[in-house]
Amino acid sequence: MRYALSLADKAECLGEIPVGAVLVDSEGNILGEGWNFSITENDPTAHAEIVALRNAAKKVQNYRLLNTTLYVTLEPCTMCAGAILHSRIQRLVFGASDYKTGAVGSRFHFFDDYQMNHKVEITGGILAQECSEKLSAFFKKRRQQKKQEKINSSKDLY
Ligand SMILES: [Zn+2]
């Protein structure tokens, strides 16, 4: 999770929402990593989890990512929960809860509602405080920037 947090920093450097994800195999080897890329790539699906899963699947040359664990700093949304299910990862570990769009218990209960043969083991709340503080600091900074931009643009009028 510490490593996923460092990937979240990479997203923040790009002005993206700081979320990081890393997929490891049963021995702890990194198969794929990702961070939010949606704004930079004009890609609404480029969430950290999706990017990590794509990279890993390419690396192992298989669309099934059996016996792997995905670490992500924020509770996945419904899109990512769907991708997690389709990729057949074994275990999902996430940091902060997402009360707006979280699909793993905060807003939706994707894995409970969506009954399939494949069951994902889920652990939430790992380094939750650090993960969530990173996000709130980012949004606070962004609000201040927007406010400053507004002040600057209103100055231009006079
Ligand atoms: Zn997502």
TrEMBL record:
Q: Where is the CMP/dCMP-type deaminase domain?
A: 1-107
* Bound cofactor: record note: Binds 1 zinc ion per subunit.
Q: Which Gene3D superfamilies does the entry link to? A: Cytidine Deaminase, domain 2 (3.40.140.10)
This protein is called tRNA-specific adenosine deaminase
Q: Which UniProt keywords apply?
A: Hydrolase, Metal-binding, tRNA processing, Zinc
Any one biological process term the GO annotation gives: tRNA wobble adenosine to inosine editing
Query: Which prosthetic group or cofactor does it need?
Result: Zn(2+)
Annotated SUPFAM superfamilies: Cytidine deaminase-like
> Could you say which residues bind Zn(2+) here?
H47, C77, C80
EC numbers listed for it are 3.5.4.33
Coding gene? tadA
Which PANTHER family is this protein grouped with? CYTOSINE DEAMINASE FAMILY MEMBER, TRNA-SPECIFIC ADENOSINE DEAMINASE
Could you tell me what reaction this enzyme catalyses? Answer: adenosine(34) in tRNA + H2O + H(+) = inosine(34) in tRNA + NH4(+)
Q: What does this protein do?
A: Catalyzes the deamination of adenosine to inosine at the wobble position 34 of tRNA(Arg2).
Keyword tRNA processing in record: yes
Q: Subunit comment for this entry?
A: Homodimer.
Query: Which residues act catalytically here?
Result: E49
Pfam families hit by this protein: dCMP_cyt_deam_1
Write down the species.
Rodentibacter genomosp. 1
Q: Which HAMAP family match?
A: tRNA_aden_deaminase (MF_00972)
Which one of the record's GO molecular function terms can you name? Answer: tRNA-specific adenosine-34 deaminase activity
Q: Which family does it belong to?
A: Belongs to the cytidine and deoxycytidylate deaminase family. ADAT2 subfamily.
Query: Which leading EC class covers this enzyme?
Result: hydrolase
* Keyword check for Metal-binding: yes
